[in-house]
Amino acid sequence: MNESMSLTIILPLLGALLAAAWPRRGVFIGITAVLLSGLAVGWLWFSLLADGPSHQALGGWDPGLGIRLQVDALSILMLSMTALVALAVSVYASHYFTRRSQAERFWPLWLLMIAALNGLFLAGDLFNLYVTLELLSLSAVALTALGGKRAGIAAALRYLMIGLLGSMGYLAGVALLYSAFGTLDMQQVAAQTGDDPVSQAALIVMTAGLLLKSALFPLHFWLPPAHSNAPAPVSAGLSALVVKAGFYLVLRLWTEVFPDTLSTQGVTLVAVLGGGAILWGSWQALQAERLKLLAAYSTVAQLGYLFVALALFMSAPPGVARELLFGALVLMALTHAFAKSSLFLAIGVIQHRAGHDRIAELDGTAQRLPATTFAIALAGVALIGLPPSGAFLGKWRLLYSAISLDQWLLVVVIGIGSLLAAAYVFRVLGHAFGRSALSVQAIHSVHEEWPALLLALTATLLLGFGSAWIWPFLEHMA
Amino acid sequence: MPDAATLYGLLGIVLAGLGAHAAIVQRDSIRRLLAINVMGVGVFLVLIATAYFGPNQDPDPIPHALVLTGIVVAVAATALALALLRAFERSDDE
Amino acid sequence: MKAGALLYLDLIMVILMLVLAIGALHARSLRHAVILFIVFGLVVALAWARLRAPDIALAEAAIGSGLAGALLLAALRDRRPGDDATRRAPVWQSVAVGGLVTALVVLLAWAFLEVQGGRANEPLANIVQATLHESGVSNPVTAVLLNFRAYDTLLELTVLLAALLGVMSLGPQRSPMRAAEPMAAGLIGWLIPLLILAGGYLLWVGAHAPGGAFQAGALLAAAAVLAHLGGRREFQLPGHTRLRLLAVAGCAVFTLVGVSTLLGSGVLLQLPSDWAGGLILLIELFATASIATALFLVYLGGHPPSWNSREVHPDA
Prior knowledge:
B: Helix Hairpins; C: mainly alpha; 2 domains; globular
């Protein structure tokens, strides 16, 4: 049954339309729509496990003439990540907005963002991906500006401009591919790409556009202001999910559409940029004075790990090591999504209660907000890559592969990055456990503290102890 | 002698380049927006040139549909960007 | 001989577009840049007509150049005179970026010229022609937009809605309106019925000739903008809630058609070929209304001034 594929997109879309038409019931509509689209993802799991990877020609037209949706192990993992993170963030958001008008504006845009993400992870058509990317970027930008503060609006404007520039680059590549191969269907294009100038030119402009959108160093400059000035639930969604969209597309394009086009120089360049992202992002996170800025720079660094892993994967010879790397890469992406959304929600709790997020003035947080502090600590474990988090398994494989491929420089970079990550996490915890009592109100609202804690537990325990199946799953369902 | 498709396609690529350059180099938001829109026209020209098979043959309708979609998406993004710009400038006064 | 004359015409168009684009990108005065951009859009519309893309020519003139131009001019007017709009990157950066972009342009142009040797996309155009009779309409562009690639168009309407929601969430804007002078107001009185008629016509012919929901919606939005500019008392805006519903309706009807096909056949947006024509017209009808509402509201900055006085918005 392939209805579930369309439902994961249609249900949040319907929810968004309802929430836009009936803003007063935003919370109810929003939570229901997120739950239902999560159930659709669950249904999709069943059909994937029963029938294997499949695709659906929308409208009943043959791919090429029509548009194809497709699902495999990678896309279902991304969909599940989106569903779970979105659910936790939605529960948090249902009590976050103090002004009703803000809440009413949040839900339709939030649901559109989820619909766009789900559509993107299922898309099998290059132009459809362009429209999905624009839907994602416009809803994300509007959400960024939701706080109404000057800094947030400025960051949203810049975010939008960068996004538009990036998607135009992507679209230029699509136009070229269509002119050469006469189709937009990813599989049909993939069958024709090779070492020719058309494939190379398209690959270069599309990748460049997507790297800009996914904020790979040094194209990351727009990300920290946008992620650190948005309302907490939005920051969580942006940093955990939206940045993954660009990375996911680069991954798909490189591995499936242009497997024979990619040059070693290109891969090396991305590895170098990824290494730069790890060092620069971690260093800036350590320098940050505000928690949200720290979290945002940490995302810059974590994206660096993902791109380094991708580059290693592309350059690894076929075999077991390569399979191991792919699983590691996916696991790191998943762990980061849960850990980072948890961190942003926890910061939101602190900001709500203490009225600020200045790291130097956090002393006493641990006494007043024990669950939140615990969530930060757990998320920190995952961000550093300590056991038992999923990131530990991922990084371990990454290091192992880097060593076996004689990439010693990468080993050093990953080591330094982890030390810096430990430093910035412990800097926060050091203040949180400080003795001086901060005038933080104690809280008893379950909705406020639990989402962050559950997300952090998922990142650290569930994805650490319970993730061994990911490797065989990715191998059989590709 | 180049045919019309080649001529307009190349023009599209040059316009996309000019737009991309200005979008990066200019600092003013409205100018950047103009630049991105010019870039869009360039990309659209490539698509429509691809669809053109000469004066006596029907063009390929698929790129036409794509470009129509692209134009609406571009105007939607432009509208949002201008609204953000106004909101930003208004926040100056407060 | 005829081909030669056409080539001269093409060369003139190409040079004109290049000059206008460079002007729009680098004119010293921002105002001139915007005006050059609008003129550029009009010439581009001619180029679309030249390349046998009348649907796009209409859309470009109405939306790409017309509405975007109106939005840009309105934004420009609200700027304070002191705003520095000539700031740009230092020369070395400009040159470096120029070098990089030139390299990309050369690469793309080379690839594009390679393609021109043997183009592959005729087969798909042939498939569209061969399948056209199953689509419910006879204008191939409408068939692609509302049947073959209907999912794209649904998402495109959603993008427009997302932009509108974004604009509305930024709160009431300064009014972009300035009442027209009496003579212009008289002219506007003539124009509005014409635009509405033209919009209805475009929507109807879209099934078998150039036109369709987007062009029609843009014309209706233009009529509404003009009516507002003319300050016509008899033109009363619907209330907040009704406009909101109208803006959502296009997307909603489209989605509901999608859901019913999903329930009926298990395939999203698989229109039964007997019904396809009617369903497409239904979708287009509501899409036109939504597009017109969305474009009009966006032009007003999300919140018509009358809302603040007539209705109590949660924020007011």
